[in-house]
Design a protein that fits this description.
This protein is an all-alpha fold and 133 residues long. Helix content is 53%, strand content 0%.
Length: 133
């Protein structure tokens, strides 16, 4: 009769580091604004998630992406100026569609590519971009 062999994962095994043992969890504690907490938990409830599942998903995405799962940047001077203008209601852009919006935005700055022409020649450009991401 052949001997049955089993393989044990060492403590340093990557497989063990990414999968907790059954039933084992760790606790995360954080202080947060009560209003933000209440609003976020309302949205999570609509999504069918509890806070623990959302935080676990967030942490998993951090591990998967080796960073935050969204871009965090300090805005440059141009962006800060645009934000301040928008808050004051200065220079609003009113456009009926995306093509009109891009035309107005591009008219304000010199660009080397004609995005409006590109959109006209490729009507499903935005859809194809979404499908690739």
């Amino acid at each position: 009769m052949a001997r049955k062999t089993t393989t044990k994962l060492s403590k340093r095994s990557p497989a063990r580091a990414t999968r907790p043992a059954a039933g084992k969890t760790a606790q995360v504690r954080a202080r947060i604004d009560p209003t933000v907490k209440e609003q976020a938990e309302g949205i999570l409830e609509e999504l069918g998630l509890n806070p623990s599942a959302a935080i676990s998903t967030f942490y998993s995405q951090i591990v998967l992406r080796r960073g935050l799962p969204f871009l965090v940047e300090v805005p440059n001077e141009v962006t800060v100026g645009a934000i301040e203008d928008a808050r004051r209601g200065h220079n609003p852009i009113d456009a009926a569609d995306l093509k009109g919006l891009l035309a107005q935005l591009l008219a304000k700055r010199d660009r080397t590519i004609g995005l409006v022409e590109l959109l006209e020649s490729t009507p499903d450009l935005l859809g194809s971009i979404r499908r690739r991401s």
